[in-house]
Amino acid sequence: MSVIMVMTGVPGAVALPRVRLRALHASPDSKVATVAKATFSTSSRANLTRNLATYLKDRSGQASIQIHDLSTGITYGYNTGLRTVTASIVKVDILAALLLRAQQDARKLTATERNLAKLMITLSDNDAATTLWNQIGGAPGLATANRKLGLRDTTPGPGGYWGSTTTSAADQLRILRSLTSKTSPLNAESRRYILGLMADVTPAQAWGISAAASDNDTTAVKNGWLPRTADSGRWTINSIGRIHGNGHDYLIAAISRRNSSMPDGITTVEHIAELTVEALNRNPAP
């Protein structure tokens, strides 16, 4: 398998598998839901839960997924009690915190801040993340922002260890909703800015939930990957983002822990995203 060297969720570079690429583009804020909502029946939910459980029982780690279709109002969650460290998906949260502070101060981001934000999201640059983490006030600053964003299960990492922030798939979905809802504490410009950066990640990091997108879909994504000493060197692999297309507008958060390797974890996250999207695709917007 050919590899590409890229920035990781921890200092240093890790060889990433070359992945199937798809054009990524930001899509606009969600519109008001249609009056006639599609339904995701009890039997459909049970079938999806069974398919996910069957697949994951032979995988090396544990995983959770949450999805919300903005077009239909359908939501679904699997293994919702799982908590993992964020690794680099917290970088979206850090940027949201920075923008909330800028909004409060009635100012735009500086050129330096915008450059750091671009490096942090599109290249997953750790030094840029550390600089902005310190600028928002570290863990207390992130906690303040997360209260505004309505997060319930997220605990910021101690000291400078932003990648050790713990979270749930449900909270990551709440962050994604804050990027797409007109009722978000983030204003429209801030929402577009974050989604635009997520739509412009370097191709080597365009794996994850984007594997579930169709050829004509537009996608925005941020991934996190981290081998953890606490898990005997096994890998945390997370992916959050948006897949927008004809009849659907999916917000998806897939998190996993204790994967035997990075490629193994990526395969798990991508496949559970594919299984979930395939199930919801059978319930198009009316």
Which structural class matches the secondary elements? alpha+beta
How far apart the termini lie comes to 43 Å
**Largest sheet, if any?**
5 strands, antiparallel
How helix-rich are the residues, as a percent range?
A: 25-40%
What is the string of SSEs from the N terminus onward? EEHEEEHHHHEHHEEEH
Describe the structure concisely.
With 286 residues, the chain is of the alpha+beta class. It has helices at 42-56, 90-104, 111-122, 126-135, 138-149, 169-178, 188-198, 262-281, and strands at residues 3-7, 13-17, 62-69, 75-78, 84-85, 166-167, 218-228, 234-245, 248-259. The strands form 3 sheets. A 5-stranded antiparallel beta sheet has the order 4-3-9-8-7, sandwiched between helices.
Topology, pairings included?
Blueprint: E1 3-7, E2 13-17, H1 42-56, E3 62-69, E4 75-78, E5 84-85, H2 90-104, H3 111-122, H4 126-135, H5 138-149, E6 166-167, H6 169-178, H7 188-198, E7 218-228, E8 234-245, E9 248-259, H8 262-281
Antiparallel strand pairs: 1-2, 3-4, 3-9, 5-6, 7-8, 8-9
Helix pairs in contact: 1-8, 2-4, 2-5, 3-4, 4-5
Task: Characterise the protein shown here.
Helices cover 37% and strands 21% of the residues. It has eight helices and nine strands. The protein is α+β, with helices and mostly antiparallel strands and 286 residues long. Helix 2 runs parallel beside helix 4 and helix 4 packs across helix 5 (138-149). The protein is globular. The longest helix is centred in the last third of the chain and has 20 residues, at 262-281. The strands form three sheets. It has a five-stranded antiparallel beta sheet with strand order 4-3-9-8-7, sandwiched between helices. A two-stranded antiparallel sheet has the order 1-2. Mean pLDDT is 90; it is low at 1-21 and 31-36.
